[in-house]
Write a structure and sequence with these properties.
By secondary structure, the chain is mostly beta strands. It is built from one helix and twelve strands, in the order H-E-E-E-E-E-E-E-E-E-E-E-E. It has a twelve-stranded antiparallel β-barrel with strand order 1-2-3-4-5-6-7-8-9-10-11-12. The N terminus is likely disordered.
């Protein structure tokens, strides 16, 4: 599934680059735009458990700067029956991430230089903590009335802590791409992909989502997220996936 997502985005990038002559200039509105999304599932009866996912995305457009701050979290808790008949609640997923990006706008349309910092705390992941600092160049490869493709590339440095306490750190090369397609006045499809290549591991994440408007400020969003590490401990899988349906409030 992860490779299918990668292939879809790669095809989109090739198609967009081939049609670069159709680029349409776009001016972003200055000021803040923020969205908050939340999804939750609670079960009872034979299966008892709770899962919650949420995200806050705040973007700031200035004359010379474009800044982006993102916080997301996900946890899952199940009630399990022990051998003696007692019931115990156990956390089976717990992941929080925070990122901040400041991009300086260059003279050419949609060309930017950026600084990025991100931190992930994942209790059950291949890394329990993963911190990245990076710089790079971003540009818009393609834009039309209803589609856009943005790409970024640049060097960085990461620090990761494995579940056994082992610390890894080193330089990376990061590449990222984002496809946005306005299918209709009320529906938008988006696809993002980022890859960080280090000396001993390749850390990747991809998200495919479709959002539909409920009213002027509310949307319904369905998303599929895949995260992959090429080198993981023996008791961990290389790829983690998450499928969610959330409500999004924009203000």
């Amino acid at each position: 599934m992860y490779m299918k997502l990668f292939s879809i985005l790669a095809l989109a990038l090739v198609s967009a680059h081939a049609g670069a002559s159709a680029v349409a200039k776009e001016t972003a509105e200055l000021g803040w735009s923020t969205s908050a999304e939340l999804g939750a599932i609670t079960t009872s009866g034979n299966t008892v458990g709770t899962s919650v996912t949420g995200k806050i995305d705040a973007r700031q457009e200035l004359n010379n700067w474009s800044n982006d701050y993102v916080f997301s979290g996900y946890f899952k808790e199940d009630e399990n029956t022990q051998d003696d008949g007692s019931k115990v609640k156990e956390r089976s997923a717990q992941r929080f991430s925070l990122s901040a990006k400041a991009a300086f706008k260059l003279l050419e349309d949609r060309e930017k230089l950026f600084v990025l910092a991100s931190h992930v705390n994942d209790k059950f992941g291949a890394y329990t903590r993963y911190t990245t600092l990076g710089i790079g160049h971003g540009s818009r490869w393609y834009a039309s009335d209803n589609k856009s493709v943005d790409v970024e590339i640049g060097p960085g440095y990461f620090t990761g802590i494995r579940p056994d306490g082992e610390t890894e750190r080193g330089f990376t090369v990061r590449g990222a791409a984002a496809l946005k397609w306005k299918i209709s006045p009320s529906a938008v499809f988006s696809q993002t992909l980022s890859v960080e290549r280090g000396t001993s591991n390749i850390h990747s994440s991809a998200e495919a989502a479709i959002s539909t408007k409920i009213n002027g400020t509310m949307q319904m969003k369905a998303a599929f997220i895949a995260r992959n590490d090429t080198v993981v401990p023996e008791d961990k899988k290389n790829t983690d996936t998450q499928t969610s349906v959330t409500l999004v409030y924009s203000f």
